[in-house]
Each structure stands twice: as structure tokens, then as C-alpha cells.
Design goal:
Two copies of one chain form a homodimer. Chain A has nine helices and eight strands. Chain A is α+β, with helices and mostly antiparallel strands. A four-stranded antiparallel beta sheet of chain A has the order 1-8-3-6. A four-stranded antiparallel beta sheet of chain A has the order 2-7-4-5. In chain A, strand 4 and strand 5 form a beta hairpin. The mean pLDDT of chain A is 96. Chains A and B meet through helix 3 and helix 5 of A and helix 3 and helix 5 of B. Chain B binds a DNA duplex through helix 9.
DNA sequence: AGGATGAATTGACATTTGTCAAGAGATATT
DNA sequence: AATATCTCTTGACAAATGTCAATTCATCCT
């Protein structure tokens, strides 16, 4: 399991032996059942986790309304970035929406790695660059004007998620009501 | 002017003499008049620029509709990230909406700096982390449900921009029509 | 000063989307 | 098998927002 994390980091920039051994000693495997919370509102997000198996959903509450901000599947590294970045309590929840296994590194360990292994900053930089890139892609979705455009965008960019996630959560991710999403879908599939 | 860029990078992580001297030789000052384009759709964004003075607007065309994606003021580093990151032509425009002076570094020079001065990866990492953090803040705005909530969020987070930018552009940034923004404003200021 | 241009506001109306409610279908539990 | 629970769909109506058009206002230009 930890090897998946080594592999992932190695693909960003090669890790030497000492560094990868150090990471092996620091990484922790965590497993979560469907519905289990990985992070709660009000907590500091003090780790970054590679999703080895499963699927997570990030969300927050706006006047009690559950609003999905992100889905993270196998091969992606999950954090609640605002909280992770400033190391203060955030307002995001992260839950497993499938049985999920993750390989995690603590924030403080990562910071120490940056100091002890300066070349690890390359990995950190590349991972952040990529996460930023993905975030910008997601944001384009929210700037689409109509419900149909948003649905099509989601279908094109996350074809597999449609099957794995309930419509309720996809709807809040797309910024529309469950009913609107349902109608868009039925209309869309009629014309195909 | 270039010293502002040195200062900015130095605030992310201290630059040694050799590195800052190298950056001085690489940085270029660019000035733009109001309305001038800094980046065009279809171009590769091959530089990152600190806004020393002025204000820029990033936007793209969706079915011919001009949609504002970002404003960047003094002290912030501007790129069109998706294009910069993958070094392929993007669909963003960047224009100066005030007389603007920027201190720029080329993409290829930055990559070479990462190689020649490995500690520069710390600066790159921290800048990207911060840019990502800001992007996540912006995205929260787009998840607000009503026009009024979006307006309030913008007022709270960018109090100075309201005066510097035309409502037309703020409206597309907030994802609403100019008329709706105007109505929200007049209603909002009546109650204050 | 006068005229042109663009920014912002306002009104009337159309369209989209949300909300509430009911019901069908699937899955899990006992 | 029966019941409960959850997901998804559909209908009717309400609310929010967009669109089109007209008007005011400020600014720029000659």
C-alpha cells in the first residue's frame, strides 16, 4: 500500500533510496467504510493522503445545506487544501463514499522532509502544481451558465464518477438541485 | 521594478546572492496600457509576471460571451495557469484594465532555475501553494447560490476591486448578468 | 460647448431553476 | 416475504435570474 505512495511521488520526481526509505517509515495506511468521516468541520487537516482504493467526497455546510466540493478517486492525493495550507481548522468534511484505503503523510512530517531532503520540494511543487491545475479545471465547470452545460461538462470530464456517486451529491457538486439534474438527464438521454 | 520581484520571491523563501543576481538578469519589465492584451487565446502562456502596478483581468470566451475568470492586482503573480502548466495554447485572454507594469520571468528560465538552484523549488512550491489557496477561495464564491450572497462575498473579499472594475466585468466574474448585479447592489445599499 | 461613447440603472416580460409533494423503483433489514 | 429506507423521477407552482429595451449619467474627444 505504501508502495503506491512511493510510486506516485516517484512519478513526480525520482526519490533516492534514503528519501523513499524515510517515507516508508512515516506513511500510515488508513481504511474507511462507506459513510465514514475522514475529516470533520472544525478540525485541522494535518495530513495528505493518496487514495489507493475507493472514493472520497469533500463537502461543507452552507446554512445547513450539504454542498459537495470535490470527489477524489484512486491515484489522487486528498487534502482539504485551505485548512492544510494554513494549518487552521477548516469547514470542510471529507467522507468515504466507498470502502476506501489511503496512504497518508502528516503535515509536520512533510514539512520536515522538505527540510531534510531539499529535493523533496520538487515533488511538493509538482504535486501542488497538478492539484492547482485540476482545481482550475473544476472551476470552469462552475462558470457554465446552464444546468445542461454543467452536466455535459461533468460527463466529459468524469465519465466514471456518474456511476459511482449518487445524483444528490453530483447535483450539489454541479450547483443545482437534485430535481433539475434528474430532468436534465432525462432530457439529455432522450436526445441520444 | 525587478527588485519588487526579488522581494516577493524572497518573502516566500530567502534567495541567496547568486540566485537573486541570476533572477535580476532574467527578469523583464513589461508595461501595458488600459485595454492592452497581455495574453491572447491560442497563445502559450510562457511567463509568470508579478504585477508591480496596475490591475489585470483574465477572461475567456464561451459561445462568444466574455467571461471573467480572475482579477490580479499589485503584489500578485499572474499566469494563465492551465496553459502555463502544460505549456500548450490555452483559451484565456489576459488584459490590463489599468496602466500596468509587470516584472516577468520566462517559463523556460524558471525551469532552468529549478535545476540550477534546487532551493528555488521551495519558492516555486510556496508560490504555487498560495496561488492554489487563492483559487480555492475564489471557487467558494461560485458555489454561493444567490446573486446577493455572491455579491456580499465579493465585497468582503475584494473591497477595493469594486471601485476599480466596471460592473460588467464583475458581473461575469460572479456568474450573473450585469442587470442582476445592478439590482442586487441597489437593493443592498437601500438596506444600509 | 456639443456630440459620441460607454457605464449603470430600471422596467416589462420570458425562461430557467428551485421548492414542495407525491410516487415508483431499488436495496437492505428483520 | 414484508417493511423500511433510500434514490430517482415527475408534476405543479413559485421564485430567481436572464433578456430586451429604454433612459440617465458620466466621460472622453474634437
Amino acid at each position: 500500500m505504501v508502495e503506491k505512495l512511493i510510486e506516485k511521488l516517484n512519478s513526480l520526481s525520482p526519490l533516492n533510496e534514503a528519501l523513499s526509505d524515510k517515507i516508508r517509515t512515516l506513511a500510515k495506511i488508513n481504511t474507511f467504510n462507506t459513510g465514514e468521516l475522514i475529516l470533520r468541520e472544525g478540525q485541522v487537516c494535518n495530513r495528505a493522503c493518496l487514495v489507493v482504493k475507493g472514493l472520497t467526497r469533500s463537502y461543507y455546510l452552507n446554512d445547513g445545506m450539504d454542498i459537495t466540493s470535490r470527489f477524489m478517486e484512486e491515484g489522487f492525493i486528498v487534502t482539504s487544501w485551505p485548512s492544510y495550507y494554513i494549518q487552521k481548522p477548516g469547514n470542510e468534511f471529507i467522507e468515504a463514499i466507498e470502502p476506501t484505503t489511503m496512504a497518508c503523510l502528516n503535515y509536520s512530517d512533510i514539512q520536515q522532509l522538505y527540510i531534510d531532503f531539499p529535493e523533496f520540494n520538487i515533488n511538493g511543487r509538482r504535486q501542488t502544481e497538478y492539484a492547482f491545475y485540476l482545481a482550475e479545471q473544476r472551476t470552469l465547470l462552475l462558470r457554465k451558465h446552464t444546468a445542461e452545460e454543467k452536466y455535459k461538462y461533468f460527463l466529459n470530464h468524469h465519465p466514471t464518477l456518474m456511476q459511482r456517486v449518487s445524483l444528490k451529491h453530483i447535483a450539489t457538486y454541479l450547483g443545482m438541485s437534485e430535481e433539475t439534474l434528474s430532468r436534465v438527464r432525462s432530457k439529455f438521454h432522450k436526445n441520444n
